[in-house]
Design a protein that fits this description.
The structure is a homodimer. Chain A is 55% helix and 3% strand. The first copy, chain A, contains five helices and two strands, in the order ααββααα.
Chain lengths: 158, 158
Amino acid sequence: MFQVGEVSRRLGLNPQTLYFYERIGLMPSPKRTAAGYRLYEPPDLERLSFITQAKALGLSLDDIKDLLMLQDGQQLSCQEVYDRLLKKVQHIDETISKLQTLKAQLNPLLEQCQQSLAQTQIGQQCVVFQQHPLVTSAEPLHNPSLHNWEDLNYDTQG
Amino acid sequence: MFQVGEVSRRLGLNPQTLYFYERIGLMPSPKRTAAGYRLYEPPDLERLSFITQAKALGLSLDDIKDLLMLQDGQQLSCQEVYDRLLKKVQHIDETISKLQTLKAQLNPLLEQCQQSLAQTQIGQQCVVFQQHPLVTSAEPLHNPSLHNWEDLNYDTQG
DNA sequence: GTTGACCTTATACTTAGGTATAAGGTGTAG
DNA sequence: CTACACCTTATACCTAAGTATAAGGTCAAC
């Protein structure tokens, strides 16, 4: 029987994360002391351990919730885990592909900048963002030929 | 001189996006009609066109704001653009590398699942999430040997 | 009793880039 | 005048996964 602080230290989680998991239904409410303090039992800790492992494998909390619901009713299906991990791997492949496409588009612009730098003095007007003619037509000005960056949820600041 | 609706159609932006860009300081406030309607002039549209192009190249709005501040004072420096695009490409490389590492970790687990499925009936307890022994020690239970998924800001649902 | 560590609940906030909603005002054609 | 399209501002909301903050209550050592 462990209280929140002990559990959070053992699992490397923030106590608030434990409350959060309970709030979103990922964890059932554990027993309580007379004072209202949570008392986690070993199966609770096993469940939390499962959660942290699945997170490390890239499963979302929603995925994990699904799997845990399956487990609650019966033995955890290897097929279900396989399906979700396969989906993750496929999504990794897609993202890599998109990133490579985008990089392939950026590299010529980089080279263009480099050439421009080599030929002119520092401070020269950049050629990458071509100046459009004064807008006199109804033609949309956005450039759809560039890969749509917004397809990637991807932290540019790392 | 164009009003919000016209500008948004020409640039493929939502009118609310125009208000948003002004609110966050990315766009200076354009002129107004006597009724308070915005009137965008060609240099305004050029600025917005620059913004949409830079976004398509993967620059964040903060990056774009920086560049535009440079441009406001003088000619846009090719060096500044090059630096930012290079940083983007480097970040793409890092993310691809991390994704490949994660994939390399997931594949053996997938194979393990596959073997387990081949050898046993559907519904067999999954072996990927090994059952931990009952928690009797102060040893943290999280598994730091797996790649830290949270380093990647990466949409798992696509 | 006091103090400090720990526990509780509820809610706001973080990140980036919007976007929806609400409550108005304006312009023009019929 | 009416109706509808368009404009305005302000604020809430969205995404996922926490995390910070506030305002308490509890426990045990001194």
